Amino acid sequence: MFRSIRFQLFRRARCAALALVAMLLLPVLSGKALAVTQAWAKVEPGHSAMWFDVSRSGEGWVLEVLPGDGAVLYWFTFDDDGNPRWLGGTGRIERGEDGDTVVFDDLYAVRGPRFGPQFNPADLVRERQGHATLRFRDCESGIITFDAYGREGEFALTRLTRTMGSGCRPAHGVPGQPVLNQAGQSGSWFEQATNGQGLSLTWLADGSVGVVWFTFDPQGRPYWLTGTGHLEADRLVFPRLQSARGGRFVDPFSPAGVERRTWGRLELRLDCTTGDAAYTPTEPGFAAGTMQLRRLTALAAPACPWVKPALTDLYAISVTELPITVVPSGLQIGTPPPGVALPPWQYGWQDLVLATTVADDGTAHGYARQEPVDYISLLPGEHPGFIDPAYRARFQPIILAPGATRWERTGSRSDGVVPIMAHAGTLLYNHAVFTPYGIQTGLTPIHADLSGPGFVDITFIDGRFPEPYWNQAIAASRDLRYAVGEAGRVKSGESGIGESDAYPWKWSIDGGQEALPARRALYARAKPLCISDDGSRIIGAAWPAGAAPESADHSVAVQWDGPRLPAELRNAAGRTLILPTVCSRDAGIVYGQWRASDIDADNKVAGFWTRDGRSAPTGPLEPSAEDPRGWPYVIEHVSADGSLAAGEYADHDDPPARDALLWAQDIGPVRLSEVLKSAGLQPDWPRIHVRGISPSGEYLLLASDPIRKGPARGDGSTIHTLLLRLEKIHP
Question: Does the N-terminal peptide bond of residue 468 adopt cis geometry, omega within 30 degrees of 0?
Fold first, then answer.
């Protein structure tokens, strides 16, 4: 198969995962490929995969993206009589402003050697049969245009497999899809003594292994086998390889006419450069045997052996300190009551800047908490005396464009709103109102369009809940067509929430607000925390009847799926995720805590749950012999795809030091104080908090606790904020 330099593909390549056993069983989904007129995608290492045309289930293409913009293509197909045959060639990636093209000037077919002991490389006949180009719309689809065996055509390509460590994944990995040390074995392998045949091996993202064996039948005709396997001790075991026949090259092709047969068993033992194979056919005419394998191609990523990267291996890190001042509001405070003499500083207001969310372009949003200077400076339990408690604090939304030197106020309301989400120029706000006693009595969700005048209120759930009640938006879809939150009664003289006091709701731009089914017989309270962008799934927390409403020890994670009652989120072992905190934009990845065991209920660890059944702890931070669990931490922010998460931890000192952390599948938990040090910035802050993460995960907002400006009362306080940027380092 790989005799000449040209047909030996290259010395290094990327793996092309071939789980054709699955592909051959796929139903016909669509018709002929159609040319598209749109911008094409950049070809990345993640395009190394097995691809197929859904209307031609039974044949497929294996693409290996190589280092240095090289590429390898295998096309396993059939001749006009339905017999298996295959083509292969080496190519190059041509980069262009309108997207990239993978060009294969020469596609070769081979024949001649006989399978088994009679294999003679001298019998190999190699014939040029055409050429092909591939272009991709995105990471999931593309087209192949070809001229082969005297026929021209174009087929639509759909991804069938994902390669472990490179399958168009985030640089930092996918939760629940760890990269194994041997993942870099993906690529092409051959035996020198039987030069002309070979194996294309792929470690798949789910931990299984795919293989395509390009070989010959006992008569010297081209033949190919496919299978999926798994790791057993030091062996890759493929219990059932399959052969196929019955398709046709180009037209007419009927997936129903493709016949699959079990051919036999294959076992491999591999390191990063060499290995051996043992095969046991059950198909008549094929003899059992072994091969001594050598690597022919290696993918650009992952390396072999794979080594856990540091954050700085994946991203260039930069830090910008954001301003702490706001464009003046001109807000004035009234004069003190008659007979009260106060220093001048007690007549002023200060803006305490709190950044809360950041968009993909680095635009930061937040609010200025306008407070009387004497109030912000008071010790706990003290009161300002003359200032009307109704004016204790005012909230006003603010925005900081990239490169700006001061925060700008937005909107026309001066009584205050708090932004909780920002995306594509729109915000979701909560409108805060305070009583003279400092108790929050109303929280109105507001949908704000920064390009228009003012704000548009989301209406209350009129008539559904007893008054007086509070109403709070908690999360929304990125296009703000859907939102979730809570409403409930305020008990006279109390600020807390008791059983049956809180009611979950969902809002849509078309249908307004409606109550969510709460399963009151089982749960005293069910609180929604996030909603998928299509509005179909909602993740929240529930507290069983009799449990404290906000107790982490008694909460369980639940999901509303359409109009159904909430169902608990359980892993494969039946254990329930507790205290969910954040989730991805499709509500398919949820972060929270797992109980380490049913016996020790106090032993809780941070972890995640995914809709497709994966779940795991996110790993210990700073484990030691004294405390193998490491420092406790919680995940509080997440990128839109759920792959990059951030939170806070506390060490075991007394009092504990607190810091911010970042987590991803491939890098594990990372202390952000150490990241700041590596960037040459070591802020002298009592604590570091993560305030927000952009949907793309490129930007993080880090903030300090309020820091008093000076020792004297009335000096006021400030909150320092940093914008940390992670710029991907392309291989």
Answer: yes
